[in-house]
Design goal:
- This protein is an alpha+beta fold and 66 residues long.
- The protein is 24% helix and 12% strand.
- A two-stranded antiparallel sheet has the order 1-2.
- β1 and β2 form a beta hairpin.
- The longest helix is centred in the first third of the chain and has 10 residues.
């Protein structure tokens, strides 16, 4: 069983925050690229809703979205 800190570091919230700060890190989901067009996800592809402090959802958008 891992320590509490280990579990907190692997939450969608924390992985998303890390990726937004450094997009060289792995994406917070098991996909690195958009499944439809193949564009690599960037820091604007993910956001936590309704807010980053108390999220209930992780939204994903292609970096090539127009």
């Amino acid at each position: 069983m891992g320590r509490r800190g280990d579990r907190q570091e692997n939450t969608a919230r924390e992985l998303t925050r890390q990726f937004k700060n450094d997009s060289k890190r792995p994406a917070p989901i098991p996909l690195e690229n958009c499944p439809w067009c193949g564009t690599k996800f960037d820091r604007n592809s993910f956001w936590l809703a309704p807010n980053a402090n108390f999220p209930t959802d992780l939204h994903v958008r292609c970096a090539n979205f127009r």
